[in-house]
Each structure stands twice: as C-alpha cells, then as structure tokens.
Amino acid sequence: MLRSNTLRYIALFIMLVLLQVLILNRISLFGYGIPFVYIYFVLKLPLGCNRGLATFLGFLIGFTIDLFCNTPGLNAAATTLIGFVSRPLQKLFFTVDDYNDQVPGISSLGSAYVKYMFLLVLVHHVFLISVESW
Q1: CB neighbour burial string for 117-126, b if at least 16 within 10 angstroms, e if fewer
Q2: Do 69 and 63 form a contact (C-beta atoms < 8 A)?
Q3: Is residue 27 within 8 Å of 34, Cβ to Cβ?
C-alpha cells in the first residue's frame, strides 16, 4: 500500500498542474510574464530525496505542463535541470544529513530555505527564458 506522503505528493502534483494549466497560464503579469507555480513541486521534495528521483519528478511535472501548454519540452528541460541541481544546492545550504526525510519549508529551515528557493527559481527562469529565446 502507498504511504501517506506519496499520496500527498500525487495530490500536490495534480493540484499544481491543474492550477497552472487552468488558471495561471491565462494570467499575464503586467503584460510580460506568467506565474510558474508548478516548480513548487520540485521545491517541496524531501531533502533526502534521491537525485535521480528528483530529476525524474522534475521532468515529469515539466513534461505534463508542456503537454497542456503546447510548449515542446521547454518546461520539461527547465524543471529537469532544477531537479538535477536541487540535491547539490541542498548540500550547499543545509546539513542534509540532519534533515534527511524532512520536507523543506520556511518554518523548519528559515532563511536558508529562502536562499535555496530563490536560487532554484532563478536557475529555472534563466534557463527557461534562454532556451525560449533561442
């Protein structure tokens, strides 16, 4: 039987995809940008998550967004990248061994999580905009 954490992540995955596809893709902030809330899924993966699993889950959510938004692999590439670099960045900002299965958040990790989140979002957006402009 599936663990409750797995069911939570499945529900979070579905909720974020639906929110992004049905609502946020129709919103234009100041005529320039669309809010990308689906990357929150990669940000909330447990600190002890295997690098391969984080990369695969990043690809999966990006590919799902690409299917609905008709963007040929752009979101999949960007979220795969942040899934791949999330583990090394976690080691940079946190003592991962102390928080092995903990779900990261501001309440538990404080300002280090904000720095980690900012850097991952920056990597995602720079990569996505660079690939899209080519």
Answers
A1: bebbbebbee
A2: no
A3: yes
pLDDT in tens, 105-132: 776 677 778 888 899 999 999 999 999 8
Which DSSP letter does residue 72 get?
A: S
pLDDT in tens, 28-56: 778 777 888 999 999 888 877 888 999 99
**Closest C-alpha among 104, 107, 57, 61 to residue 84:** 57
Compute the Cα dihedral for 77, 83, 84, 90 and give only its sign: positive
User: Alpha-carbon distance 86 to 35, whole Å?
Assistant: 21
What are residue 110's phi and psi, to 5 degrees?
Answer: 70, -140
- Report domain extents, the chain: 4-133
- Residue 38, Ramachandran bin (φ over 0: left; ψ between -120 and 50: alpha; else beta): alpha
Question: What is the Cα–Cα distance from 66 to 100, expressed in whole angstroms?
Answer: 31
Outline where DSSP puts E strands in the chain. Answer: none
